[in-house]
Amino acid sequence: ARANAPQPALATESPVSEDGTVYTFKLREGVAWVDSQGRQVGNLTADDFVAGMQHLMDAKGGLESLIQPVIVGADDYITGKTTDFTKVGVKAEDDTTLVYTLVEPCPYFMTMLGYSIFAPMSRDYYTSQGGKFGEEFDNSAADYKYGTDADHIAYCGPYLVTGATAENSITFKANPKYWNADKINIKTINWLYDDLSDAT
C-alpha cells in the first residue's frame, strides 16, 4: 500500500472508468449492521449507500452542497427540479456493486468518500424506525425514531455509541461484529463536551 493513500475498508475493489466519471465499488460481503447493544439487525448492501445518499439529500442538513455539483442528478434532486431519485448518479447494480456517476472528472473524489455524507444507512433499519424517503420524508412525524438517540441507530463501523449525555459526553465502544474487529486497538473512546468557557 502506498503511504498516505486511502485504503479500502467496506470495499474490496474500486475501478474507475477511462474518462474518470464512473466509480464502481465491489463491497465486502458479510458486513453486519448492529444496534447499540451489538445485536445484528441486517447485512450491509450496496443499496444502503444509495439509501444514505438519498437521506442526505432529503434531510437537507447543509452538507449536501458538497456533492451537489459533483454527482450526476444531485443538483436537480436537491433543488426539487426532479423528485425521481433514480436519476441521481448513485446506484446499486446488485447487493455488492455500488456505482457513482460524476458530472465531470473529479480527481479528489476518492478522498471525498471519507466524508460522513458518503456513509451507508441501513434502508431496512431506517424504515423500521419510521424513516421515509423523497417527498414523504418527515423527521417530525410521531413515528420517526431514527437517529433520535444512540439506541435508534444501526451501526456497521468500528464503534457503537453506548452512552450519550447532552452537554456532557459521548461514549464509543468497539463493535465486536465489525468486519475488522481484531484490528481495533482502542476499545473505548470518550468525547467530552466543552462549552468553551475555559480557554485551557
Can you give a write-up of this model?
It is built from four helices and nine strands; from the N terminus they run ββββααββααβββ. The strands form three sheets. It has a four-stranded antiparallel beta sheet with strand order 1-2-6-5, covered by helices on one side. Strands 7-8-9 form a three-stranded antiparallel beta sheet, with no helix packed on it. The longest helix is centred in the N-terminal third of the chain and has 14 residues, at 46-59. The termini are far apart. It is of the alpha+beta class.
- How many strands? 9
Which ranges are low-confidence, i.e. pLDDT below 50, for 5 or more consecutive residues? none
Summarize the main sheet.
4 strands, antiparallel
> What's the helix count?
4
Following the backbone from N to C, one meets helices and strands in this order, namely EEEEHHEEHHEEE
Helix and strand content put the structural class at alpha+beta
Rg calculated over all Cα atoms: 18 Å
